[in-house]
Structure formats: C-alpha cells, structure tokens
Amino acid sequence: MFERLREDIDCMFERDPAARSGFEILTIYPGLHAALMHRVSHTLWNHGLKWLARLLSNLARLFTGIEIHPGARIGRRFFIDHGMGVVIGETAVVGDDCTLYHGVTLGGTSWNKGKRHPTLGRNVVVGAGAKILGPIEIGDGVRIGSNSVVIESVAPGTTVVGVPGHVVAPPPADAADQWRAKTAVDIGFDAYGATKDAPDPVAKAVNLMLDHIHVLDRRIKALSHVLEQQGIDEHFEHLPDLEACEIQSAPDAAKTGERTDDSAR
Predict the structure, then answer these.
(1) Rounded Cα–Cα distance for residues 249 and 257 (Å)
(2) How far apart are CA 238 and CA 47, in angstroms?
(3) Residues 61-120: pLDDT tens digits?
(4) In the chain, what are the domains?
(5) Backbone angles phi and psi of 84, in degrees to 5
(6) SS (H, E, C) the chain
C-alpha cells in the first residue's frame, strides 16, 4: 500500500512542475484522492459489496469532481491532472503510467451489458476535454489531443487529434519541405511555424499550391531555356524575381488616385 502511494507521489512530481512537496500532493491533489478512493471502492466491488462501492465512488466524486466507476480497472502510477469533470466508465481499463487531464471521458456507446468502455495501454496521455468512446483499444504510448473524440482503436505510439479523431502523420522530411520553405520565403508567407506538427486544412492547401508553383516554375524555366537556344526569344517578357517585387506604397497609391481624379475633372 505504502509502495503504491510512494509511486503515485513520485509520478506526480515527474509530470506536474507545479508540485512542490509530497505533503502538498498528499493533502490537496484531487487526482491522488480519487485514485486512492477508487482502489478501496474497487476492492469492495470485487468482493460483492457493490452498493457500498458505489456509495464510496459517489463520495469521491463529490469531493474531487472525478467520477471513476468502482468496476473500472486502473493501473499503477495513474495521474489525473486538475481532474474536474473526468468520467471513467465501469468496464474501462487504464494501463500503467497513464495521464488524464480535466474533462476526459472514457465512456460507452451501448446500453448492452458487457465490455462497452475503452481500454488504454501503458503510458497513454489524454488531453483536456477528450472523449474516448466504446470498447476500443488505445495502444501503448498514444497521445490524444485536447477535445478530440476517439471512436476507433488506435495503434501504439501514434498521436490522435480532431473530431472524429484521426492519426496525425509525422511531418515528412523530404525535398518538398525545402521547396516549400524557399517559396514561402520568396512570396512572404510562412504557413509552417504553427502547423508543423498539427493538421491544418488551410496550411495543407497552401503547401500543395506551393508545391505546384515550384514544379511549374521549373518546367517553364526549362522550356524557356530551350526556346532561347533556338533563337526564339523576341516575344519573351522576362519576369522579375519574386524577392524584387514590391507592393505599391500608400503614398504612390494616393498620388495615382489624385491623378485619376484630375483626369476625370
């Protein structure tokens, strides 16, 4: 018992930089209180004292804001950060070293008896407000983004975001990234700073446009070179480099507007 408690306190020190002492964690961390009370209620549940187990579970929810059904199975070094609004259903299984943030739901999608809640593997992190629903498997080391809704099983070691949740592929490390970066610098737009590791449909569309522009520019340049070698160049109007293009300044625009007005008069 004391070994498990020591493990819980140590893991909270590791995962919560705001933790200052073991006494603080033991006395005012609702995630720890909910986990300790769940162990007692789960023992009562397994010994057939189901009403008493539910009563203790309800008392834990009253004092911590965290609802863990006494039938749920929770692994070692389980950490609920903040915790308010966390709901864990009866047939849920949570592996060792998992971390849940506030507002997380491990819920069911069926009124039938039997397994109807998710199973989390080891070292899973579930962001604030995420919903994991149904008898699905979440593999070891999975990261689930805040406010995601996961309704399908997830392979180990992946990251899931969105509604419904989908796996985020790691950013490709190929030549296309270099083309995009150069083109983005040339035209004065960079869509990568905030979207490198997260899906963004607008940034994705811009990335594809930059790829297309890059390839098209290279083809036109090669075609022009061949035509110039054949002496066909009198109809060419050479475009300035992108970095040389400048937007007309406000004073110039104002002067243009004044001339337009004068000509109208």
Answers:
(1) 12
(2) 85
(3) 999 999 999 999 999 989 898 889 999 999 999 999 899 999 999 998 888 888 999 999
(4) 2-167 (2.160.10.10), 175-264 (no CATH)
(5) -55, 130
(6) CHHHHHHHHHHHHHHCCCCCCHHHHHHHCHHHHHHHHHHHHHHHHHCCCHHHHHHHHHHHHHHHCCEECCCCEECCCCEEECCCCCEECCCCEECCCCEEECCCEEECCCCCCCCCCCEECCCCEECCCCEEECCCEECCCCEECCCCEECCCECCCCEEECCCCEECCCCCCCHHHHHHHHHHHHHCCCCCCCCCCCCCHHHHHHHHHHHHHHHHHHHHHHHHHHHHHCCCCCCCCCCCCHHHCCCCCHHHHHHHHHHHHHHHC
Question: pTM value?
Answer: 0.61
The token duo for 128 is: 């604030």
> Scanning the structure block, which residue is given the tokens 């069911």?
108
Residues 77, 82, 83: CA angle, nearest 5 degrees? 75
